[in-house]
Design goal:
This protein has about 130 residues and is α+β, with helices and mostly antiparallel strands. Strands 1-2-3-4-5-6-7-8 form an 8-stranded antiparallel barrel. About 20% of the residues lie in helices and about 40% in strands. Strand 4 and strand 5 form a beta hairpin.
Amino acid sequence: MNRLLACAAAALLLGACASTEKELTDKGMKPLDAAKAQTLLSGNTATGTTASGNGFMIYNAPDGTMRGKSGNSSDAGKWEVTTDGQHCNQWTTWRGGERRCARLYEVDGEIRYFEGGNYGGRYKIEQGNPYKL
């Protein structure tokens, strides 16, 4: 029960800390450029929480494939960074297999991502594939 309460509190705190993309740009922050995003993601694992509070871990392989886990579910797909720095991915089944792109901002040692200007979630980068995804 204590663990459940702690998880619920953490989810609320994470949601309360969510910034809008406009708030970040009003503070003078800029999204990551293509080179920085590519270097950050390629060959590394993103571990974080979506805007709805779902935890995830995603390994972005250097060859453009990715594997992810969220709860008891796992999926695979493809990822890329566009020339304007957006991180795009397309899962086999998650998100209905729809290709989606997000702008990435580095804030307080983590990455916040925005899809179409809407807060999508946050994650930290872990070197390599420590979870063997």
